[in-house]
Design a protein that fits this description.
It is elongated, with a radius of gyration of 21 Å. Strand 1 (9-13), helix 1 (22-32) and strand 2 form a beta-alpha-beta unit. The protein starts with 8 loop residues before the first strand and ends in a 10-residue tail after the last helix. A seven-stranded parallel β-sheet has the order 8-7-6-9-10-11-12. The chain has a five-stranded parallel β-sheet with strand order 2-1-3-4-5. It is of the alpha/beta class. The protein folds into two domains: 9-97 and 286-305, NAD(P)-binding Rossmann-like Domain (Rossmann fold); 99-278, Rossmann fold (3-Layer(aba) Sandwich), CATH 3.40.50. The chain is built from nine helices and twelve strands.
């Protein structure tokens, strides 16, 4: 059972440096919430803690008397919600923190794919002064995009692409009208939604319904000059089908920030594909990420310690 009383001791699980170093987050919170004690901890060292801030679920978080666990990501597919509920642990995530950051990254990837900028970067390493074929680059303005998953993240992407003059349609499990998209297709009709898009951008959460959503049928429905951009989760795409589509020139290329296995194994074929941009799950990375997480944790601490409902509560 959780401890009684206010949350006063918060552990920050030592997850590494991405998307922000735990030590930096600890220092930020120590300045803004001096009434609480913040420590960087390992999953097996939770003694006397009331709450944990983490990047991933660990089984050690359960049955330890914790009152609250906060996930610094928006995705929570690895968190067993029923187990947290049974243990009476409040679970929150960071939905909304990185939407504009990922949106900016998608804009960068769209421009790179459209203009072939990644090809020039490859040539720079070899000191090669060589243009790509003159008909290869194309204008972003006037092109088309299908954003799959028009929640907060997808909405940010759709808004930014719209400003660039891209004609945007959406795919979602619910009707969406607040983004100025008059064509939001149900997920069951995704093949129809992608068939006219130059860019297909994946921003949907990973759930049982979206796992493997982009399969060979969806890839077959895409134009042969279309690009797939995945900034959501690798498992949303049938990776073998994507490799086949790229090798057979069924689609023009891809920008992939997420994969089945991370880090991406050295033997993965994507590394060697000229028209594929590989980034290391970094679409949300920014100097302000730690500040944003600190603000959210500070807000939720105040709410929880004053009998309020925390933002982004999952359990």
């Amino acid at each position: 059972m959780p401890n009684d009383g206010p949350i006063e001791r918060v552990g920050i699980h030592d997850w590494g440096t991405h998307p922000c170093p735990p030590v930096s987050l600890r220092d930020l919170l120590a300045e803004t919430v001096p009434e609480c004690e913040f420590t960087v901890c390992e999953a097996d060292d939770l003694t006397s803690l009331d709450a944990v801030v983490t990047l991933y679920h660990r089984d050690e978080f359960l049955d330890r008397g914790l009152q609250w666990v906060h996930n610094v990501r928006s995705g929570y597919e690895d968190f067993p919600l029923d187990a947290y509920d049974e243990d009476s642990i409040v679970l929150t995530n960071s939905t909304g923190v990185a939407g504009d950051l990922v949106g900016e990254s998608v804009v960068g990837l769209v421009h790179s794919l459209a203009k072939g900028l990644h090809r020039y970067r490859d040539k720079q390493a070899a000191r090669e002064w060589e243009r790509i074929p003159w008909r290869r680059p194309f204008e972003v303005s006037g092109s088309t995009a299908c954003v799959v998953g028009v929640g907060e993240l997808g909405g940010s992407v759709a808004t930014r692409l719209g400003v660039l003059g891209v004609d945007v349609v959406g795919v979602d499990i619910r009707p969406v009208s607040g983004l100025g998209l008059d064509r939001v297709h149900d997920a069951s009709r995704i093949e129809r939604a992608v068939e006219n898009a130059r860019f297909v951008v994946l921003t949907t959460p990973l759930t049982d319904a979206t796992r493997g959503l982009v399969d060979s049928e969806v890839l077959d429905a895409m134009r042969d000059d279309a690009y797939l951009i995945n900034v959501s989760r690798g498992a949303i795409v049938d990776q073998d089908a994507l490799v086949e589509a790229l090798e057979n020139d069924d689609i023009a290329g891809a920008a992939l920030d997420v994969f089945y296995d991370e880090p991406l194994p050295p033997e993965a074929p994507f590394w060697e594909m000229d028209e594929v941009i590989v980034t290391p799950h970094a679409a949300a990375q920014a100097a302000t990420y730690g500040d944003r997480i600190a603000d959210l944790v500070e807000t939720n601490l105040s709410r929880l310690n004053n009998d309020g409902t925390p933002w982004n509560q999952l359990v």
